[in-house]
Specification:
The protein is an all-alpha fold and 107 residues long. It is 73% helix and 0% strand. The chain has helices spanning 15-30, 40-55, 60-105.
Length: 107
């Protein structure tokens, strides 16, 4: 949490909605329509596709905007991946503790 810049008193899962909101805001800036059912991965994929279209447009102002959007998207994606990785590590550690406890109890 410290590495990600989050308060240590809040669970990591609390930050995924914050990242989804940031991704939805970026999608609006880029011009991507987002439904309420879209996952963070869906939103990121759609933004990435639109950024690629902007980069390939040949219009210097669109290319400049796309580069800025790319940086914002990379930040959102990086934070989401870090949270998901950390959560997976926590789940793995809990699973190992469970196996150790079962072994210790002879189950």
């Amino acid at each position: 949490k410290h590495r990600l810049g989050f308060k240590s008193t809040r669970p990591l899962a609390d930050f995924l909605p914050t990242l989804t909101i940031a991704a939805k805001n970026l999608a609006t800036e880029v011009g991507v329509t987002v439904s309420s059912n879209d996952s963070l991965d869906d939103i990121v994929d759609n933004i990435s596709k639109e950024i690629q279209v902007m980069l390939n447009s040949g219009d210097q102002s669109k290319i400049s905007s796309a580069q800025s959007y790319q940086a914002q998207l990379a930040s959102i994606s990086g934070r989401a991946e870090a949270i998901q990785s950390t959560q997976q590590n926590i789940f793995n550690a809990m699973d190992m503790i469970s196996v150790s406890n079962k072994y210790a109890l002879g189950l």
